């Protein structure tokens, strides 16, 4: 009897310890049995993900996630933890998937799996309308803002590593005098709009985000061409290859039947789903 | 000037001198800050060129207004002074916000959701955390006052850690750390746990000082009457301590109301989260931030009112 109890305790401890490291098929099983795909998305990045006029989650990423859920035959539920909590990994089953325009960098790949790239974002510099800069080389030695801990900051620091297959080649064309980082790109735009050189000389961000800011009345202009194109991937927690394979298959089908191109045209007025 | 005739007029003179000094001081400050250059200058002299003359004129008019205000208010009753000062400051704040060119339609459109979802969640989290933290604080204070070494050790360790680390860090530790141990909790409970533990630690010290402030003779008198320890604490010491504890505890509650915004990092749709995200879609950040500031302020005023009622209840003994 005692032996059984101690065995039971040992099993309970083992079960408790093994919860975070998902077993094969666990995520897929959970999604299919709950009939629900839980998406984590940070609604601070219009037009990828934001709260619309009806206070509903909306945007390109949300539409892609809805389509993935539809093809899995389940409902989509959205939760909104902060970006750094999503990228920290070890989701512990709180959510199943991130369709968050995430760049599959080497450091992130240690925490998360990246089963499928769904589009490519051009990264551009934006300057104030009053600025005399016309090309990237004009920004050498200037104060440049970007989001902190993101690929744009890594590019400015010249240590960007994207280890995804099919990543377009790029060179570092700008040597900033000073890099200022922000919690999100939109805060950097707020600093740039104050005036040319008031706090920032330029912001380095995703072209769609810059265009969205300009559309909403920010006095900015885009420096062409793009500094680099970054592949953006769906992310899932480590440890469920079956779920990863399923997601990869669905995204591949969405590439092939034109669904992704259609959504890209809807939100970005351009087809960003193919590598440039 | 002889000594005799200077005495009766001294008061009036000094008031006048002070008024002139205030006037000149403000005029110089306004001129230097160029406060009146925009709207004010156009109001005073619509045709004048925007230059130094307009700048000085605007500064003089503004300074005259301020001086008349400061001097004039002195002649009124205390209550009237307070009310007028509040009204003036609110008008100033409104003018300040109006200068941002806010889109009021946008605010009106988002406000119902900000309140029904955001403010409701904020109040819910705060109230639950307040209730739990009070219990933790009482246990912590009693443990720290007890002669039991283990209880004292645990209490001091707990208070030291949770007062000694940032609340935001505790939120992350609880939300990201507990799943590593196999306890997967949702964002709202994680936030409530973090807030309760952090504020419980601060309030344990407040409770302890309140209990210690009750004169020792009170407990001794209880013992002389043959009452046992628990009863003395419940019926004699605590009722007297609460009166001392309430004002600083009310402070803590108001602070917690605002610190509950840190829960937004876990994606809880409370007031601060919505204030940050609702404006993002159309890049109208100031609109929602200012609105949320006003909502927070109104809620904390309600908390203040509740605190003063509780104070009045436990302060009955002081009424003579």
Features:
heterodimer, A: 276 residues, alpha/beta, D-Maltodextrin-Binding Protein, domain 2, two-stranded parallel ribbon, 10 strands, 25% strand, globular, B: 320 residues, MetI-like fold, 12 helices, amino-acid transport (chain B), MetI-like_sf (chain B)
What does this structure look like?
- The complex is a heterodimer of chains A (276) and B (320).
- With 276 residues, chain A is of the alpha/beta class.
- Chain A has 2 domains: 17-120 and 232-268, D-Maltodextrin-Binding Protein, domain 2 (3-Layer(aba) Sandwich); 121-230, 3-Layer(aba) Sandwich (D-Maltodextrin-Binding Protein, domain 2), CATH 3.40.190.10.
- Chain A has helices at 2-18, 26-34, 60-72, 83-87, 106-109, 151-156, 185-193, 207-215, 241-256, 259-268; strands at 36-40, 50-51, 57-58, 75-79, 97-102, 112-128, 143-147, 178-182, 202-206, 220-237.
- In chain A, the strands form 3 sheets. Chain A has a 6-stranded mixed β-sheet.
- In chain A, a hairpin with a 5-residue loop joins strand 2 (50-51) and strand 3.
- Chain A is globular and about 60 Å long.
- Chain B is mainly alpha-helical and 320 residues long.
- Chain B has 2 domains: 3-76, no CATH class; 104-318, MetI-like (MetI-like fold, Orthogonal Bundle), CATH 1.10.3720.
- Helix content of chain B is 79%, strand content 0%.
- Chain B has 12 helices and no strands.
- Chain B has helices spanning 3-33, 39-44, 52-73, 78-98, 104-145, 149-164, 167-177, 187-213, 216-224, 229-259, 271-278, 285-314.
- In chain B, helix 5 (104-145) packs antiparallel against helix 6 (149-164).
- The radius of gyration of chain B is 28 Å and the shape is flat.
- Chains A and B meet through helix 1, strand 2 and helix 7 of A and helix 5, helix 7 and helix 11 of B.
- Chain B: It comes from Rhodobium orientis.
- Chain B: InterPro entries: AA_ABC_transptr_permease_3TM, ArtM/GltK/GlnP/TcyL/YhdX-like, MetI-like, MetI-like_sf.
- Chain B: One of its GO terms (biological process) is amino acid transport.
- Chain B: Belongs to the binding-protein-dependent transport system permease family. HisMQ subfamily.
- Chain B: Residues 119-307 form the ABC transmembrane type-1 domain.
């Amino acid at each position: 009897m005692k032996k059984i109890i101690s065995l039971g305790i040992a099993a309970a401890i083992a079960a408790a310890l093994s919860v975070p490291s998902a077993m094969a098929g666990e995520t897929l099983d959970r999604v299919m049995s709950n009939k629900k795909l839980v998406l984590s998305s940070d609604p601070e990045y219009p037009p990828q993900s934001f709260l619309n006029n009806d206070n509903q989650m909306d945007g390109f990423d949300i539409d892609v996630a809805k389509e993935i859920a539809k093809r899995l035959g389940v409902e989509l539920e959205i939760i909104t933890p902060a970006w750094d909590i999503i990228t920290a990994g070890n989701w512990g089953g709180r959510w199943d998937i991130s369709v968050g325009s995430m760049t599959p960098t080497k450091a992130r790949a240690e925490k998360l799996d990246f089963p499928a790239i769904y589009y490519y974002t051009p990264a551009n510099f934006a300057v104030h309308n009053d600025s005399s800069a016309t090309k990237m080389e004009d920004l050498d030695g200037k104060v440049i803002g970007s989001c902190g801990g993101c690929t744009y900051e890594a590019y400015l620091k010249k240590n960007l590593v994207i280890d995804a297959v099919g990543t377009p080649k790029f060179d570092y064309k700008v040597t900033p005098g000073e890099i200022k980082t922000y919690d999100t790109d939109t805060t950097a735009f707020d600093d740039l709009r104050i005036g040319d050189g008031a706090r920032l000389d330029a912001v380095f961000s995703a072209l769609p985000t810059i265009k969205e800011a300009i559309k909403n009345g920010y006095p900015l202009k885009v420096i062409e061409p793009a500094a680099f194109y970054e592949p953006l991937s769906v992310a899932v927690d480590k440890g469920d290859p079956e779920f990863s394979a399923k997601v990869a298959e669905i995204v591949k089908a969405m590439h092939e039947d034109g669904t992704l191109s259609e959504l890209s045209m809807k939100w970005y007025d351009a087809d960003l789903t193919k590598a440039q | 000037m002889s000594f005799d005739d200077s005495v009766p007029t001294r008061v009036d003179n000094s008031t006048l001198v002070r008024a002139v000094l205030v006037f000149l001081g403000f005029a110089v400050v306004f001129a230097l800050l160029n406060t009146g250059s925009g709207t004010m200058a156009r109001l005073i002299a619509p045709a004048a060129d925007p230059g130094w003359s307009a700048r000085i004129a605007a500064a003089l008019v503004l300074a005259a207004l301020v001086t008349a205000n400061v001097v004039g208010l002195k002649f009124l009753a205390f209550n009237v002074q307070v009310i007028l000062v509040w009204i003036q400051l609110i008008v100033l704040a409104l003018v300040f916000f109006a200068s941002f060119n806010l889109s009021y339609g946008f605010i009106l459109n988002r406000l119902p959701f900000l309140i029904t979802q955001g403010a409701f969640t904020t109040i819910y989290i705060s109230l639950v955390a307040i209730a739990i933290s009070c219990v933790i604080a009482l246990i912590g204070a009693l443990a720290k006052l007890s002669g039991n070494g283990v209880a004292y050790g645990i209490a001091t360790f707990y208070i030291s850690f949770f007062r000694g680390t940032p609340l935001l860090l505790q939120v992350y530790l609880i939300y990201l750390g507990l799943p590593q141990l196999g306890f997967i909790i949702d964002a709202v409970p994680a936030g409530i746990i973090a807030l309760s533990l952090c504020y419980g630690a601060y309030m344990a010290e407040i409770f302890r000082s309140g209990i210690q402030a009750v004169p020792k003779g009170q407990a001794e008198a209880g013992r002389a009457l043959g009452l046992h320890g628990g009863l003395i604490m419940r019926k004699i010491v605590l009722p007297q301590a609460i009166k001392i504890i309430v004002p600083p505890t009310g402070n803590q509650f108001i602070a917690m109301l605002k610190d509950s915004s840190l829960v937004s990092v876990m994606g809880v749709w409370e007031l601060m989260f919505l204030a940050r995200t609702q404006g993002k879609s159309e890049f109208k950040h100031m609109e929602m931030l200012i609105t949320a500031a006003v909502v927070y302020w109104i809620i904390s005023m309600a908390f203040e009112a509740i605190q003063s009622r509780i104070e009045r209840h436990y302060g009955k003994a002081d009424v003579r």
